[in-house]
Amino acid sequence: MKTLSIPATFFTALLLAAVPAPAADTSQPWLMNPPPAEKFSSFTRFEMPNIAMFPPYAGKGPNVKALTVIQRDFTKATAPALQAWNEAGAKAEKVRTLLIEPRVEEIKFISGGTRFWAGGLAGDSFVRITIKISEKETGRVIGTPMFYAKANRMAGAWSVGATDNVMLTRVAAHMAAYVTGNYAAAVGGATGEDPPKKK
């Protein structure tokens, strides 16, 4: 009888996947971002560069893929508003530029392929993004909201990565809601953190 041969690299991958990655810091129970110092309609020009990501997260395939999805959804949800706001402020006598700079603080994205082979052993997916919002002309910081989303390892295993992908869409939606929701009035917005479970 022939013996099925499985490459040693497969077992190595499983062992590495089983090693827990450092989780995002959720020791502080924050559910809502505070309002910015000013409503965004006080400004006449709006600039928003692409979401930045730096080492040790930048350059890693799954993280790059995840950021591409977050950027796509975030841009799609905010671009029409930013365009309209810039058009509305184009004739203003005094230019005040609101600089909106998103940055990935932490990320671990488990791809569908990894979920297929390693399932829950690959751990949770999570992402934490901060947006620095400031007045470009003066450097004055208007707000630094933070957004967080997580995909449970077991749910990711059962869905073969579907919940990991939904996590990306979810964090982009919270980011966009904050940017667009603080234009008419400074009201803050949800972080994406799940409320603590009742004991």
Order of helices and strands: HEEHEHEEEHHE
Strand content: 15-25%
CATH C-level name: Alpha Beta
Helix content: 25-40%
Which CATH architecture is right? Answer: 3-Layer(aba) Sandwich
Oligomer: single chain
| Overall radius of gyration | 20 Å
Structural class, by secondary structure, is alpha+beta
CATH fold-level label: Rossmann fold
Output mean pLDDT.
77
End-to-end Cα distance: 55 Å
- What is the overall shape? elongated
How many beta strands in the DSSP annotation? 7
Number of domains: 1
Describe the structure.
By secondary structure, this protein is of the alpha+beta class. It has a single domain (30-187), classed as 3-Layer(aba) Sandwich (Rossmann fold). 37% of the residues lie in helices and 20% in strands. The protein has five helices and seven strands, in the order H-E-E-H-E-H-E-E-E-H-H-E. The protein has helices at 8-18, 61-89, 112-118, 153-158, 162-181; strands at 32-33, 45-47, 97-108, 125-135, 141-143, 146-151, 189-190. Strands 2, 3, 4, 5 and 6 form a five-stranded mixed sheet that branches. Strand 4 (125-135) and strand 5 (141-143) form a beta hairpin. Helix 2 runs parallel beside helix 5 (162-181). The protein is elongated. The model is unreliable at 1-29, 116-122 and 153-161 (pLDDT under 50).
